[in-house]
Design brief:
single chain, about 160 residues, alpha/beta, Rossmann fold, five-stranded parallel β-sheet, 6 helices, 5 strands, about 45% helix, about 20% strand
């Protein structure tokens, strides 16, 4: 069974993330969505809320693609998380050149730690390339409409959070 790991904070999950999840699920038998616990970032949504959003959105994708998709919180090294879930592949989404430079460094470090885990990059579709969770939160906080960047469920959660 080919297992892939798609890590991130997903604070919140966006249409860009869902695009990558949908496409990654076509490459593996099981896709683990690694939900990073990053206390330094001070997420808008707590871990339980982020996992619940991912599980709700991924249940639809799993039924659509036939691939098992599960959420897995982690706080250790990404390469250790990959080992924990039995992933042979780490999936990373790219939006721009700036993403690539950072990801290039991460791949090198991860390969030095464990060369048996491969990293696969998926380019975000053009219509999703500008979407970043940080920007979505900022727009929502300032009263802007983020409905084209997130699913209705996530949009509702943002509206509730920011009033």
């Amino acid at each position: 069974m080919r297992v892939g790991l798609y890590p991130g904070t997903f604070d919140p999950i966006t249409m860009g993330h869902i695009d990558i999840i949908r496409r990654a699920s076509m490459l593996v038998d099981k896709l683990v969505i690694g939900v990073a616990i990053n206390r330094d970032k001070g997420p808008l949504f707590n871990l339980e809320e982020r996992v619940a959003m991912i599980e709700a959105e991924c249940a639809k994708l799993s039924a659509e693609t036939g691939t098992e998709i599960v959420a897995h919180p982690f706080e250790n090294l990404l390469i250790d998380c990959a080992k924990d879930v039995g992933a042979q592949v780490i999936v990373r989404g790219l939006r721009a050149v700036a993403d690539f430079e950072y990801e290039f460094q991460m791949v090198g470090m991860n390969r030095a730690l464990d060369s048996s885990v491969e990293t696969v990059f998926l380019m975000a579709e053009a219509r999703h390339q500008a979407i970043a969770s940080k920007l979505v939160k900022e727009i929502a906080r300032l009263g802007g409409d983020v409905s084209k960047f997130v699913t209705p469920m996530v949009n509702e959660a943002l509206l509730e959070r920011f009033g």
